[in-house]
Write the structure tokens for this entry.
Amino acid sequence: MAEKKGIIAEFKEFIMQGNVMDLAVGVVIGAAFTAIVNSLVEDIINPLIGLLGGDALVDGASSLSYTFANGITMNYGNFIGAIINFLIVGFVLFLIVKAFNKARNSNKEEEPAEEEGPSEEVALLTEIKDILAKK
């Protein structure tokens, strides 16, 4: 009969699994990477978009907006920044997955392929057995 574990023991076992720890590291690195991408977009790319947008905007694309007659403002510059963030993060993630798959596939190619027939040792032992059986 299996011993019933307490909730604390189950949680400790769950949290100490390698996958959970890898996920936690990934989340922390992802958050740091997101901060870098946000800074790149907000501090470098958005001002360039603002300059290309016709006005020499100080805040860049984030200040690109359209105000309707009733006072409602549509901030399309923020939307452009979010799209650029998404594309940069998506592209970097694509490159990481591609490199991971390439490394994984190269490791598989380096492993010797299993032979179809019996190994040399088995074939040699079978030959010795057959010779002894004939005597």
